[in-house]
Amino acid sequence: MQTKILFFLLFVSVFLLGGEEGQYVQARKGMVETIEREVGSTSGYLGRERLKQSVIDAMGKVPRHRFVPQKRRKYAYENRPLPIGHGQTISQPYIVAVMTDLLDINASSRVLEVGTGSGYQAAILAEIAKEVYTIEVIKELAATAEKTLRTLGYKNIRTRIGDGYYGWEAYAPYDAIIVTAASGSIPPPLLKQLKPGGRMIIPVGGFSRVQHLILVRKDLNGSITTRQILPVRFVPLTGKH
Question: Which is the catalytic residue, given 43, 54, 91, 183?
Answer without folding.
Answer: 91
